[in-house]
């Protein structure tokens, strides 16, 4: 709108509409700041997951896989791997028959890794929920401002001439509709960003799930090697006992 003095429109508006403008402007600033921050975060997270997944694919042993993970303490892949490794270390010493122990360890590890993947994915998305709030609330706030502005414009009709009424109503409607426009300007980008981050969250969760599956495969191989070592140790002990002279004690 050429020649429109937006500051004057704001200053001439009623207090309620001014509050709506301020709230919507604050929501817009927060949404854009949050969107740029989450864009950078998801890009970084997906890069870390891709690099660490490649490391697991190339690793031959569990210990080597851990050494090659991203060294950043807060990396999502390291947190998932640490949760699985801690659970494995806690359960590997169970005094149970080999087959039963293996099944218990693998079942518990699947649950632990699945829960940790969900926890890390949810933690990365949690602040983004504000975008969804803005996408739903901003149009309603704008509509409320518009309705209030129209209501305010129609007050005092009885004490004015017809020409004055039309002028006041026209000015009031113009000011009131401004909140709807601002509300839509907040809601549309918020909706687009929210849906985009939902898709990125799905991608992150799928990649983390694949990472967890590779980790479980390495743990399973390590568990098998442990069973082989235990079996060899028992065979060696049995051989030593059989080869010992009968008179030895």
Automatic annotation (TrEMBL):
Membrane topology, from the record: Multi-pass membrane protein
InterPro entries recorded: ExbB/TolQ_transport, MotA_ExbB_proton_chnl
Pfam families: MotA_ExbB
Predominant subcellular localization, coarse grouping: membrane
Domain MotA/TolQ/ExbB proton channel: 101-206
GO biological process, any: protein import
Keyword set, alphabetical order: Cell membrane, Membrane, Protein transport, Transmembrane, Transmembrane helix, Transport
Subcellular location, record wording: Cell membrane; Membrane
Annotated GO CC locations: plasma membrane
Membrane-spanning parts: 15-37, 129-151, 176-197
Record family assignment: Belongs to the exbB/tolQ family.
Protein name, UniProt field: Biopolymer transport protein TolQ
